[in-house]
Amino acid sequence: MTRGAEDENEKRMKEGTGPPGRARRAAEDLDRHLPFEHPLRLFMAEHALMHRLADQLDDLCSALARGRGSRDATLKRIRGLALELRTASRAHQKREEEALFAALRDRGIHGPPDLLEHEHGDFQTLEDELVCQSEAMTANPDGDATPLFQAASSLIALSRSHIHRENEVLFPMVLELFTRDGIWDEVRRVSDTIPSSTEENES
Fold first, then answer.
1. In the chain, is it the N or the C terminus that has fewer CB atoms within a 10 Å radius of its CB?
2. pLDDT at residue number 179
3. Please, which residues have CB within 8 angstroms of residue 93's CB and are 6 or more apart in sequence?
4. How many separate helices (H) and strands (E) can be counted in the chain?
């Protein structure tokens, strides 16, 4: 891949916009286009789980801020959700970094995986902060919830933008670039060695 093409892909990732034509159409209905056994399906299922958990966290923080329901019960639910979200996120990040991002770098694509992997570090910082703040609030329910709200809000915003860039830009871009390449067998082989948090939620 040329330096110019890599720069263009990195620009798309930062802007959250996809390439024109077939790749963009694939982004709009990726689920319909992918074979059932395609390894990207698991990545997208994990995204769906993380999106659902982020939405639940948003709802619980809103209920806490408005004083709806039992404060103690809501704080305990937030703490449980923070732990669940961190566990799901770490498993997904490991899969992306070791399976997909490594395969892309092997093929000369560094910009998008470097950018997204840097965001994984931001995720981990915010997830740890959310767990810390939720545990502190559970121990002291009458304390100031502002740091908890700030950590949750930042994590939710990052999660939504990050998932959007991967679903709408990265995945279609990779499908466009590697239609007949052996990348997917390689991604599947590595991905299959990493347990998925979606399995626990389906059991």
1. C
2. 73
3. 120, 123, 124
4. 11, 0
Please report the pLDDT score of residue 146 as a whole number. 97
Cβ-count burial of 119 within 10 angstroms (0-12 exposed, 13-18 middle, 19+ buried)?
Answer: middle
Per-residue tokens: 187: 């991604």
Query: What DSSP character marks residue 36?
Result: T
Angle at 82 between CA 166 and CA 78, to 5 degrees: 130
Distance CA 13, CA 18 (A): 8
Residue length of the chain: 203
| Distances in whole angstroms, Cα of residue 14 to Cα of each of 7, 107, 180, 185 | 11, 20, 27, 28
Structure tokens at 50: 């993380």
Question: Is 131 within 8 Å of 79 (Cβ atoms)?
Answer: yes
**Distance, CA of 96 to CA of 190 (rounded, Å):** 10
Tokens of 163: 């998932």
What distance in Å separates the CA atoms of residue 63 and residue 143, rounded to the nearest whole number?
A: 16
Q: Are the beta carbons of 54 and 92 closer than 8 angstroms? A: no
3-state secondary structure of 67: coil
The pTM (predicted TM-score) of the whole model is 0.82
In the numeric block, the tokens 């499908």 are attached to 175
